[in-house]
Amino acid sequence: MKRREFMTWVGIGGLASYLPVALAACSPQKTQSQSTANSVDSEGYQSIGTLEQLTEKGELLSKELAMGSVLVIQKPDNPQEIIAVNPTCPHAGCSVNWKADQKAFLCPCHDSKFAADGQLLEGPAEEPLKRYQAKLEGQTILVKAE
């Protein structure tokens, strides 16, 4: 074997041995709350967070559920109840934002407005936001597609 071939093989071997380390370092790491969020119970409910997190943040958004994106809020007139919707505006696919001061979801793209329960208040959207079933089990918020 010539020196050049030997050095080529050493270089290839070195790269191959570091490849798994580089891939592991570049892949996104799941936090405990993310791995909990993906768990599904026997009734099809998925955990997306805790009541404490919801109260602290004012909303909980999860984009990693099997059913798609979910945005959870506390019902404005009864904070003990929770509401879960798909935050994708049915008009053009933009993500709506919860505006607690207006008690409404607003679409930043074309100004569609939706009530806290997802019902359409103002267009150009022509359909309400998709709703999910939501419940509290202890302090854990669970959501399921209707």
Describe this entry's structure for a reader.
The protein is of the alpha+beta class and 146 residues long. The protein has a single domain, classed as Rieske Iron-sulfur Protein (3-layer Sandwich), CATH 2.102.10.10. The chain has 3 helices and 10 strands, in the order ααβαβββββββββ. The strands form 2 sheets. It has a 6-stranded antiparallel sheet with strand order 1-10-9-4-3-2. A 4-stranded antiparallel sheet has the order 5-6-7-8, with no helix packed on it. It is elongated and about 80 Å long. It starts with a helix and ends with a strand.
Provide the fold topology.
Blueprint: H1 3-26, H2 32-37, E1 46-50, H3 51-57, E2 60-65, E3 68-75, E4 78-85, E5 97-99, E6 104-106, E7 113-115, E8 120-122, E9 131-137, E10 140-145
Antiparallel strand pairs: 1-10, 2-3, 3-4, 4-9, 5-6, 6-7, 7-8, 9-10
The N- and C-terminal alpha carbons lie at a distance of 67 Å
Largest sheet: number of strands, sense, barrel closure: 6 strands, antiparallel
The overall strand count is 10
Radius of gyration: 23 Å
Which oligomeric form is depicted?
Answer: single chain
User: What share of residues is helical?
Assistant: 25-40%
Order of helices and strands: HHEHEEEEEEEEE
Under CATH, the homologous superfamily reads Rieske [2Fe-2S] iron-sulphur domain
CATH architecture group name? 3-layer Sandwich
